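Sequence and structure are kept together here, with a separate record for every protein. A complete record is shown below as an example:
=====
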Amino acid sequence: MRAVTALLVVGCALTGGALLSTVWAAAPATPTPLPAETLKSPAEFVSIQDPAARSVALFSEAGKVINSPRCMNCHPVQRAPTQGDDRHPHNPPMVAGQAGHGPVGMPCSACHGPANVPTWGQDVKSIPGDPKWALAPVEMAWQGKSLGAICAQIRDPSRNGGRGLAQLHDHMANDHLVGWAWNPGAGRVPAPGTQARFGELVQAWIGTGAKCPAA
């Protein structure tokens, strides 16, 4: 009996070791950083003499961040998040729920914690996370809209949750969850530039009249 038990223990250990070896072999030793697009500084737009035209150009530059998958995946009009650079449907299927934290019985926190978590998968290299992880509120539902339509929405307090321009700047320049877009975890391309540069562009856009692109 002892000999049989010993053989079973050794067999389980070998099987487990083989499985672990397979998992570890599949994981890259050092994830290769993915390239990120840059952002121009507000100073690069001073040659545009017309303040309104400069304002539009500044927002268009900031729009590289707003339109990036890192932001748009969490700003869906349909109230269902998307994933990846191709913005495919969230897997498993998910909806915002009453408070933007998922439906009853399947909250976002069931999978997403306070920080990014690396995985050993080939397709999903990390699970994103943040202390405030949630879908954007319906007032900031933008996915599928033109940059001009997004601009008109976010500067209109009647359609952005009652936020003034100063509040919008603070949110975009300083909010930790917004900042996740530049630290999205392995396997994801960060948003262009940095959050600090993004905040500078938004502030310069406000300072030139907060004008919006035509489309």
The longest helix spans residues 2-26. The first strand starts at residue 82 and ends at 83. The beta strands are 82-83, 88-89, 117-118, 126-127. Helices lie at 2-26, 51-66, 69-72, 147-154, 165-174, 176-179, 195-207.
